[in-house]
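User: Could you write out the 3D structure of this protein bound to 4H6? I've included everything you need below.
Assistant: Certainly. Input first, then the structure.
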Amino acid sequence: MYFAVISIFPEMFASIREFGITGRAVTQEQVTIECINPRDYTTDNYRRVDERPYGGGPGMVMMAEPLAQAIEAAKLRASQQGCRIGKANCPVVYMSPQGQTLSENSVLDMTKYDGMILLCGRYEGIDERLLSQYVDLEVSIGDYVLSGGELPAMVMIDSVIRRLPDVMGDKLSAEQDSFVDGLLDCPHYTKPYEFAGMAVPEVLLSGHHANIAKWRFIQQVKRTQTRRPDLWQAFTPTAEQAQWLKALEKQD
Ligand code: 4H6
């Protein structure tokens, strides 16, 4: 999958390009992450990308022209990388607090794209005419404000890469079902057997895989009920999970 990021701070993206699961996906050429700096598409001596807002007021606004050139360059690069161009295959995505909130479901939908072009705003935002002309999707990572779209873009790229079929293999795609199946994750334990006077739950040492799976599911349920009643309300169990839940209800 191809990602082009339009940002005046391209160095920030070293963190996802060089480290962890996303770094490995880049090294193994399962994904390509390229940065395009709108300053490289300015024509003045100062390489200005911002200007004062029409109508006055504090702060600055990103100008349309350098961003338009950067997006056109990104589309050319995307097609050179084998992406089909257009909203359905390689959308231009604007990271903004006004966007649709990212979810595990929308992340999974995004894995079907050939590529994505991510537009990162700075200052007070971007000239509305650039947005209406070029933006296909507007995405928020949650209801809070950050000083730029770069961190949201990295959050989105990371969440999409880890759901790509060959990036985690079967390893996590089975385990990671946690959030995917609509429940919070269960607790995890490793060596030593005892820490701070607390032992590892016995069932995890039993080697009884069915009991372990059931215990983990019950832990997920208990956590979700207490911490995220909204998620619990929306949850639909599988046939096996429904059996386990019946047994749990009888206990209480
Ligand atoms: C677009 C418009 C995304 C992008 C305005 C971006 C939070 C999210 C930004 C701004 C973002 C999110 C510029 C507004 C700085 C505040 C960049 N913040 N801002 N929730 N900031 O996904 O001032």
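The first strand starts at residue 2 and ends at 6.
User: Perfect, thank you.
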